[in-house]
Structure formats: C-alpha cells, structure tokens
Amino acid sequence: MLNQKEIEKLRKLYYENHFTVAEIMRMMKISRNTCYKYLRFVDFNAYVKENKRKHYLDDYKEIMLDIIKKDSLHHHKQRYTGSRAYDYLKENYPDFNYPKTSTIKYFTMLKKEFYYEHNGFLPLEHKPGEAQVDFGECSFIEKGNKIYGKYCVLTFTYSNASYIQIMKNKNAESITLALRHIFEYLNGVPHTIWFDNDTSLVKIENEENFVKKRTICDTFQRFKLHYDFQEVFLNTGRGYEKGTVEQGVRFMRRNLLVPLPSFDDFDAFNKELL
Predict the structure, then answer these.
(1) Residues sharing a CB contact under 8 Å with residue 165, sequence separation 6 or more, in sequence order
(2) Cα–Cα–Cα angle for 152, 161, 175, nearest 5°?
(3) Domain check: are 19 and 69 in the same one?
(4) Which CATH number covers residue 247?
(5) Judging by beta carbons within 10 Å of its beta carbon (0-12, 13-18, 19+), is residue 182 exposed, middle or buried?
(6) Which residues make Cβ contacts (< 8 Å) with residue 152, sequence separation at least 6?
(7) The total number of structural domains that make up the chain
(8) Using CA atoms in the order 42, 48, 54, 55, what is the torsion angle rounded to 10 degrees?
(9) What is the DSSP letter of 77?
(10) What is residue 91's DSSP assignment?
(11) 171 & 247 share domain
(12) Are the beta carbons of 116 and 122 closer than 8 angstroms?
C-alpha cells in the first residue's frame, strides 16, 4: 500500500508530467495493478491508513451496499450520491443519527470498493468546472462552396452544457482558436479539460522497451499556459472516460448541423452557434 505522498507523486507523474504507466512502474518500483489502482481512485483518504477498528457506520454497511448494487444497474446520472444516501438513511431508519460528512465519506468508500472489485475501474465522476473536448466531421457551404470540415465540442461533464465551433481543418491553431472563442463567450475557463490523444495536440513516441512518451505541441502548450487550465489526456482504450462529450458531439451534429449549414461569413456563423 502506498502512502499519501507516494500516491500524490504517482498521480502527478501520470496526469501532469505525462509519464506512461510503464515508466512510472519502473521509476517507483511498483506493479502494474498497483499503478492502475491509485490512478483510478479519486479520494484516497480511506486507503492511506489501515483502519483495523470497526467503523461506527458498519451497522449500516449492508444497507448502503444494497443501494450501490441496485444503482449499478441504472444510468450513472440516476445513482445515489453520498448526500442522497444520507437523506435516505435519515428518512427510513429512525435510529440513524450520524454526521452527514462521515456518512458521505463512508458511502463513497464503499462505492469505490464495489466498482473496483466488480469492473476493475470506477465510474468516472467529474466535479463542477471540468470539461471534455472532442471532435467530429461535418460539411458546410460557405459562399456557395461546399467544404468538408471538422467541428470542436466542449462539454462540461457536471452539467452536460455543450458548446460547438466549426473548423475548416483540424490542427492545433484551429483547435485553440475554437476553444478561445468558447472561453470568451463563457467569460471563463474550465479549470481542467480532458482531451483525447489527438495528434494535432500531442505526439506519442515509442522509446526503448516499448515505453511511450507524450509530447505536447508548442502551440497548445502556450495556449494552456496562457489560459491557465490543467489538461488531462485520456488513456488509450478507455472509452468510458469520455462518454459525456461523445454524446454532446452527436447531439450538436444532429441539432445544429442538419440540414447542411449555408452561410457567407464563417466567423459570424460560429458566433451564432454559441
């Protein structure tokens, strides 16, 4: 079991310094399973210290686990939060008289353990202020000429609010310009933005022993430093990490790009989309 300092180091190496799992395993001398375990968990307070004593909420453990098991069959946005679980216990069990904060932490711990044991990963939960970015293909008519282009969608994962900008091509300059227009419209910037490993923004190179290294392109590096947000590049093969924005991409295409848009002023049309 890693201590808190080691956990923070591991996550910083992966999410901020963009080291691969293989590199982190070698640097920290840990197994692949250990590495993935601490990358997947969000709140480690329950795992950092071993607690050998019986928890005062253990009497309600089976009730909470029953809620979690039933919830696993439902859409992730219709599952119990720790706060809602606390309200449920207060309403249905007259003898339940424990602090709300402790109940939320305990319920969250059980939830993490359940999903990790049954699925090997946790349902990804985003906090307010986090967003995902993804792209789609589209056609549009500008001044009578049909153009095969792209579009960029930024979706706030907590609220599902989405914003779209069309692009004539997909390179770092076009992507950062689209995001800048969205930031200016919002008059703000998400503190964390999740991206796919798009070759327009990041280059992945194979080094010795099949170790992969991410290198962010200069244009995007300057852009993120200017707007001061934290970028997170999604793991290859982890489709569940970006389900929210992919829904936004489909929704925007069906509702804003059908029928084929036709306009004379490209910039004016992008403003209308916001």
Answers:
(1) 151, 152, 178, 181, 182, 270, 273, 274
(2) 20
(3) no
(4) 3.30.420.10
(5) buried
(6) 133, 134, 135, 164, 165, 166, 167, 174, 175, 178, 179
(7) 3
(8) -40
(9) G
(10) H
(11) yes
(12) yes
Q: How many CA atoms lie within 13 A of 142 on its CB side?
A: 14
CA neighbor of 234 nearest in space, from 151, 130, 139: 130
Residues spanned by the domain of 261: 130-273
Q: How far is CA 154 from CA 46, 179, 193, 217, 218, in A?
A: 33, 8, 9, 20, 21
Model pTM above 0.85: no
How far is Cα 138 from Cα 146, in angstroms, rounded to an integer? 11
Residues 172 and 261 in one domain: yes
Domain check: are 90 and 111 in the same one? yes
Determine the Cα–Cα distance for residues 117 and 199; give it in Å rounded to an integer: 34
pLDDT tens series, the chain, 274 aa: 777 778 878 877 776 666 777 778 888 888 877 887 777 654 444 443 444 457 888 889 999 999 988 887 776 667 788 888 999 999 999 889 998 888 988 888 888 777 666 554 444 454 567 888 989 999 999 999 999 999 999 988 767 788 899 999 999 999 999 999 999 998 889 888 988 888 888 877 665 544 556 788 899 999 988 888 888 887 654 444 455 556 668 778 888 888 889 999 999 999 999 8
